[in-house]
User: What shape does this take?
Amino acid sequence: MLCLLRWILIGCLLLPVAAPALGPHEILLLVNRDSPRSVELAHHYLHLRQIPPENIVEVSLSPAARSPQAFISRDDFTRQIWAPVQAALRERRLEDHILALAYSADFPVLIAGDPEVSLTGLTHVRNRLPEAEAIRKGTYTSRLFAGPGMDLQRRGTPGSLEQYAARLLTDMPLPAMLLAHTGSRGESTGQAIRRLQAGVRQQGSPLSGQVFFLTSDDIRTKCRSWQFEDTAAELKRLGQSAQILPLAEATPASTAWGIMAGAAELDPARLPRLVPGSLAEHLTSYAAIFYGHTYQTKLSAWLQAGAAGSAGTVTEPMSIWTKFPHARLFVHYASGCTLLEALAQAVACPLQLVAVGDPLLAPWTKPQGLTLINLNDETEGLKGTVEFAASGWAGGLSRDSRVLFLLDGRSILSAGDPPLARIDTALLADGWHEVRAVVYSGGAVRHQGFAVQGFTSAHHGRSLHVQGVSSNQTLGTDETVLLTVRAEPPPEALALVQHEQLVARQVYQPDQPYRLDAGLLGAGPSRIQLAALYPEGEPVRSVPIPVLVQRPPSEREAYGPRPGQIWTELRMPKNVLHGTVREADGRLELQAEREVVLARSEINPESIQELAATFTLPGGELAQPGQRMALAFAIQDGDNYAWAAWNGENSAWSLGRMTDGLWKTEHEVGATLEPGQVCILRLQRQAAGGVTFSVNGEPLLASPTLDLQGAYGVAAGTAPISATRIGVWSATPP
Assistant: This one.
């Protein structure tokens, strides 16, 4: 962990400052560093919501977290997630204003144990579970639940999380949400990014359409239908239209910003059309058990149909209404709460429910405009006392508004009218710093506006300047960038800084460039920032340079030149088992008559270094039993070979063997494909033995026991696939 700098505001101490409402600086964003998908999605969210870099925490998770079952044990949650979160909050001194957690992609949804609970549920209670019976029966009640219950208990007014935090103090829960589930039967990374982008465009723009409460004789509807009429009336008082309608009568002719149903199976395409920013949910047992129970619709179906957020249980909930969102979810949302705040106040017993969406999405928000004014002559090489003032767009701030300043992610006090932050650079390390001003409105739901400015301190005579890339330049993950660095005085070393960590280190040589492997940044919007490291004193950070990092184009990733190797393509094979293979327009089209069809090469190189192919699964509903598309290698016969495959039954990529006609999976990672998605599969032989498997440039799996050798080819299941440019790179010609 990079040593964090000490900040003190001149004239006052660094003290905790309560931050009303929920804003980007109050979200702690967790990233699974072992998953390129998790890193990429986090980078997009960081960019879209302008979350402070100090608010990102990287963790490393057990392989089970990315399995189709997407689970970890309670002990692993404590060691791999909860302990790093608590350490980051302490070390970065963020405890005074972090109100919620956001998990990026490739996190588990289920925490195994007795009883089973969800990732967001265990986070909500700060890793302190109530008694098991209260979880099973749903009698535990969150301190954030705003009611009413079936006994018409107190109806809480929609409010911001800060109001609860000020009242509950150390008893304040920690509500959480997954940005996306990109594992089995979830969303692809691209789908999740597009959904988050669409939500940001709706920020501050009230949604059109109605809320639909869809009814039926199903117990899944009956267990909370008592909430609908009262909530519809409350929505009407807010100027929102709501209908209580039989599920069978709902049609896509209507437009919805909210749908609440109760059914095991439903097709969102047959229901009112969801607008961007909308919420939808259908109270069924297995909406968040993604790898199995395919007869029940998953919560991801709502997201793919246009909803911005949804929720579902990770274990059998027994139709207990307290375990699901109350109908007042839509009242909280339409009152200006963020999606996470709305859900937190609408679920009485959130311990087995997992929520997916953008926690900061708030279409009905009314943010105050704010300008952060730099009162210094320049932004670079500043010495002595520097000053920043906050001003409203209309010239002044309203009487009931409040301003908070943050310096490099930490709350600091301010004084004066207009609010002014005075910072003594003598107490700072030289280099780059960021000031953020946040203004909060009054009222029950407190809206935010914020502005950010950076400056470079040079009080101690140290400086670091980096050139070599332009602002917002696009880089490939396979690129090496030579950065020109000028540091005074010369440091011992230079380091790449990301997410408050030293990612890579290089000995400093005045006349030598810094060699940056862009792949270390991860895909998505990012920024290049170096730190000069000295034997004594704090690191000196350079001005961050925003860049966009992209994976190489698929064709270049799969079929780029390999110096000293020979490419051999699979021609129309004669050895076809249990199915049909035909060649058309340079493609092989395969479909099994029974479980699997295998197209095998007839001529094989002596030493295969890589095996690659382009696969396409036809459009339509994905992740179904019988869907297999595999690169086969080490083929002995039709019943014995190794494979790297897409397995629709588990909605996963996997490595394993076919042994005597039986599929045996060795390693597996849950995933979601878009209809018609083109997939570039690559298998590479490792110098120490074994193989690594990647799809579209994303490393997925590795096996130390499988080996690229012998005959190779393509295998498919009962669902048809199309394959192009199947072949191998070898050290010697066939």
Notes: Residues 26-252+260-357 form one domain. Confidence is low (pLDDT under 50) at residues 1-20.
